[in-house]
């Protein structure tokens, strides 16, 4: 099974670092946008909302946000759609690249690069479902199953992202170890 990002060999470095820069810029923007969302009920802002997992917890978080904070949350959820494309493609490309470095160094984990790259795009799809559930809660009523759906999608999304990041880190170690051998 191949991944579409495997075909951009020639331009991989500039594409990866451009995507990484845009991803990091959006992370800074989210940090600024998210500051009004941090309350006692939502100490991690929008992430607390994503992981609330129950109707009462979701409602408590929304109730802790004033109108301005709720607007920030809504804008943040909308901007997240651009972020999904950026982070998932950046990490997917990093996984492909890391797998090639591992394969060149005969590391046993090289065969996981393509499934992990696809997993990053799956993480983005889970993020879409999560955001739809959060928008329904934010603009409608906190009701089952939306809080639970958002939580499960968020947990799976974060797990896939974390595994992808660890894999990229292993690729970096493989690259560095090659220089010392």
Structure annotation, total helices: 6
Measured as a percent range, the helix fraction is: over 70%
Strand and helix order: HHHHHH
Structural class by helix and strand composition: mainly alpha
Number of strands: 0
Describe the main β-sheet briefly: none
The figure for the number of domains is: 1
Query: Which oligomeric state applies?
Result: single chain
Mean pLDDT: 93
What is the alpha-carbon Rg in Å? Answer: 18 Å
In the predicted model, the low-confidence regions spanning at least 5 consecutive residues are: none
Characterize the overall form: elongated
Alpha carbon gap, first and last residue:
31 Å
Beta content: under 5%
Q: Describe it for me?
A:
It is elongated, with a radius of gyration of 18 Å. 76% of the residues lie in helices and 0% in strands. It is an all-alpha fold and 181 residues long. The chain contains six helices and no strands. Helix 5 packs antiparallel against helix 6. The chain has helices at residues 12-34, 46-50, 55-64, 67-104, 113-139, 146-180. It has one domain (4-180). The two termini are 31 Å apart.
What layout of secondary structure does this protein have?
Layout: H1 12-34, H2 46-50, H3 55-64, H4 67-104, H5 113-139, H6 146-180
Helix pairs in contact: 1-4, 4-5, 4-6, 5-6
Task: Explain briefly what this protein structure is.
By secondary structure, this protein is mainly alpha-helical.
């Amino acid at each position: 099974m191949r991944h579409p990002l495997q075909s951009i060999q020639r331009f991989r470095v500039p594409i990866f670092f451009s995507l990484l820069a845009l991803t990091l810029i959006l992370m800074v923007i989210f940090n600024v946008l998210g500051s009004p969302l941090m309350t006692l009920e939502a100490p991690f802002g929008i992430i607390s909302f994503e992981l609330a997992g129950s109707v009462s917890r979701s409602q408590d978080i929304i109730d802790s946000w004033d109108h301005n904070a709720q607007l920030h949350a809504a804008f943040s959820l909308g901007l997240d759609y651009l972020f999904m494309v950026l982070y998932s493609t950046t990490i997917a490309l990093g996984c492909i690249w890391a797998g090639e470095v591992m394969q060149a160094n005969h590391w046993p984990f090289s065969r996981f690069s393509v499934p992990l790259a696809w997993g990053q795009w799956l993480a983005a799809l889970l993020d879409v479902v999560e955001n739809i559930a959060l928008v329904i809660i934010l603009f409608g009523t906190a009701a089952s199953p939306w809080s639970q759906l958002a939580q499960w999608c968020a947990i799976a999304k974060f797990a896939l992202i974390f595994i992808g990041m660890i894999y990229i880190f292993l690729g970096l170690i493989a690259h560095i170890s090659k220089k010392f051998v």
